[in-house]
Amino acid sequence: MQEQQLKLLLQSAIVRExxxxxxxxSFWRVEVPNTPRTLWESNHQQPDLRQLLPNVNxxxxxxxxxELRALCGIGWEFVxxxxxxxxxxxxxxxxxxxxxxxxxxSDLERLWLVISAVDTDYF
Length: 123
Description:
7 helices
C-alpha cells in the first residue's frame, strides 16, 4: 500500500473512532488540536484500524514521515486487545518527553498525546 493512500485511510478511520471521544473532550474541557479530516470516500466498506495498522511494520515506521508516524500512533490508541508494537510505544514516550520539555510538536503529535490522556482519564 502506498504511503499517501495509507495516510488517507488512517485519517478516515481515526475520524470515525474519535466521534465517541467528543463527550470526554468536552467534559475535561480539553482543546483538541487540529484533527484529521475524512478525505477517503468510497462505495466500498472502509477498512478499520485493525486492517490498516498491520501494514506498518517497524521498518516502514522508521522510514515514514512524522505525519504517518503520528497517524499510526493515534490509530493504535483505538485498538483494544492487542498490545501496541514496542517501536510505536517508544515513539509515544519520546513525544511525551518532548512535551514535558516544552518542545514543539505537530498538531497530530499533540492530538496523539491528548487522545491518550483523555481516553485513559489521565486528567
